[in-house]
Each structure stands twice: as C-alpha cells, then as structure tokens.
Amino acid sequence: MTPTSLSELKKELILMPSSELVKICIRLAKYKKENKELLGYLLFDSNYELDYITRIKNEMDVLFGAMNTSSIYYAKKNIRKILRITNRYIRYSGQKQTEAELRIHFCIKLRQAFIHLPASASVDNIFNGQILKINQAVSVLHEDLQHDYIEELRRLNLNIKH
Q1: How far apart are CA 25 and CA 115, in angstroms?
Q2: What's the CA gap between 16 and 106, in Å, rounded?
Q3: Mean pLDDT of 20-45
Q4: What gap in Å lies between CA 122 and CA 14, rounded to an integer?
Q5: Distance CA 24, CA 28 (A)
Q6: Residues 121-140, buried b or exposed e (16+ Cβ, 10 A)?
Q7: In this structure, are residues 46 and 39 in contact, taking their beta carbons and an 8 Å threshold?
Q8: Fewer beta carbons below 10 Å: N end or C end of the chain?
Q9: DSSP assignment string, 16-72
C-alpha cells in the first residue's frame, strides 16, 4: 500500500466535518507516543513557546544530571539519547528560535558534563555538529536576534561562525 500524498490528505481533511477530524486525531494519538506528544504541543504549548523551551531545558538538565559517567561508552549513549529527545522536541516546534535555544543549552550542558570525562572524538563530533546546526538556525533569524545569539555564543565560548 502506497502512502497518500500530503496534498490529497489536505484536500480530504478540508472536506471532512469537525467531529470526524476529532476522531481521526484521537485515533492517531492512540497508536504512537510521538503523535500524542505532537498533538499535545499543538494544542497546549504552541501558544506558550517560552514555557515550552523552559520545560524542555529543565528536562535536559535532569537527563544530563542522571547521565552515567562511569565510562565514556555509557556517557556517549546517554548523550545520544538526550540529543534524540531534544531533536524530537525541536521538530514539534518547528521554530528556528526554539531550535537555537535548545541546541545552545544542549552544548552548554554537554561542555559542563565533559569537564569530568576524558576527550572523545565522537563526543567532539556531536558537539561540532550541534554548533553547525546552531549556525544554520541563527542565520535565518531576524538580524537583532542573530546578533543576540552570536554575542551569547561568544560569551559562552562556543565557536560560532558568522
């Protein structure tokens, strides 16, 4: 079975009565955790982006605090898990400012966590990849916001290229 195109789905959803749309949304949310999280974001958090960012940062702080640092192997697994979760929340929002905020926070927490751990090429690659993504996100923001983020990154000693 081939998936239906988004334009066809959109046309069909426009014609559908609202009660049917509610049933479809509930059914989608039932079967996948990510669908439920996205629906929750769209309904409750999309109008309160700053609160959403703060909540995600707090969750990241908890995850970094619980990170297993007994060996670099376990630390890397935990870092990848935190990054996966962060990327999922960034996808839900879809806003570049939210992406920049969360990625900067991730880099700060990663740098703080690895003060106590030995150097690792793969962790450096993760860190550098996040810096590149921060650069991409910041580059499409308004000039005033770009300037603010660039200054913040310089202050934090994160290597940003602009």
Answers
A1: 45
A2: 42
A3: 88
A4: 47
A5: 6
A6: eebeebbeebbebbbebbee
A7: no
A8: N
A9: S-HHHHHHHHHHHHHH-HHHHHHHHIIIIITT-HHHHHHHHHHHHHHHHHT---SSH
Per the listing, tokens 């913040």 go with 152
**Tokens standing for residue 128:** 């550098």
pLDDT of residue 6: 87
**Distance between CA atoms of residues 126 and 153, nearest Å:** 17
Q: What is the pLDDT of residues 62-112, one digit of tens each?
A: 999 999 888 888 889 999 999 999 999 999 998 999 999 999 999 999 888
d(CA 27, CA 3): 17
Q: Quick one: how far is CA 129 from the chain centroid?
A: 14
Q: How far apart are alpha carbons 87 and 126 in whole angstroms?
A: 13
Q: CA-to-CA distance for 53 and 93, rounded, in angstroms?
A: 10
Q: Which amino acid is at 98?
A: T
